[in-house]
């Protein structure tokens, strides 16, 4: 550029007050519009975390802020699991506190089968009858990864399946390194329910889909090396898909390594929506409808009490 062609710096004009005001009005307007769109999306999107353990000690100091966060994330309902029937009163207290947001189950976890006594079956049966917010029996199942008492686990599983059939309630199944035997048991003793925190291969996933089960994915599906689980998540029909946190365990990416909580089920939903190439709102609506269907969450109890 020749010197004669250079712009005259002295003739540059600064923006007027009116132009500055117009710019900032545009910035504020754009921010408000996006904020409103985000709010509308949250209001429209509803999530159900189908497996939590809020009665654990790690949550007792901040339950109020925990609730605020899950509501902010769009979580409208929780299904609280049970590892031992002695937890029943503490879980029921939470259902009262978070009324009408929390339903729950009663049962015995497979890693606690050594606590099964002659009266445990009647205890679970009686507790499941006394509160209409009990929507499932469990969690029950087989865990051969951490324990080798296979026969006792199967015996206790069968006893709880009998309770579920008697009460016509779905079951929450914990299955780890035991898919083959679990398939045999559920084939011989058909019930409806969910394979919770599913970690099986696509082949194993098909076994339980063929038995009519729902498949629920936790934060594990967001882990980088969870290839089999991600492949399973892609193949589950949309009307059999559920989401959960299993909190306080297994926080999803980007919260991995921290205490898990119900709000983080949003991260599970986001990851599944990307895996399955569907909009987040579509996945949220489908999994919420599925949870309502399986656990019969028509909320008539809450509306009439």
* Rg calculated over all Cα atoms: 25 Å
| Strand segment tally | 8
Q: Unreliable runs, pLDDT <50, ≥5 residues?
A: 1-11, 33-39
The helix/strand class is alpha/beta
Mean pLDDT: 90
Note the total helix count.
11
Strand order of the largest sheet: 1-2-3-4-5-6-7-8
Please outline the major beta sheet.
8 strands, parallel
- Give the fraction of residues assigned to helices: 40-55%
Global shape = globular
Order of helices and strands: HEHEHEHEHEHEHEHEHHH
Give the DSSP E fraction (strand runs of 2 or more residues): 5-15%
Could you tell me how far the N terminus lies from the C terminus, measured between alpha carbons in angstroms? 82 Å
Note the main attributes of this structure.
8-stranded parallel sheet, 8 strands, alpha/beta, disordered N terminus, 11 helices, 305 residues
Summarize this structure briefly.
The protein has 305 residues and is α/β, with parallel strands linked by helices.
Description of the molecule:
The chain has 305 residues and is an alpha/beta fold. It is 45% helix and 14% strand. The protein contains 11 helices and 8 strands. It has helices at 17-44, 63-72, 88-97, 120-130, 150-167, 179-188, 202-210, 227-235, 265-276, 280-295, 300-303; strands at residues 47-52, 75-80, 102-106, 134-143, 171-176, 193-195, 214-217, 241-243. Strands 1-2-3-4-5-6-7-8 form an 8-stranded parallel sheet. Strand 2, helix 3 and strand 3 (102-106) form a beta-alpha-beta unit. The model is unreliable at 1-11 and 33-39 (pLDDT under 50).
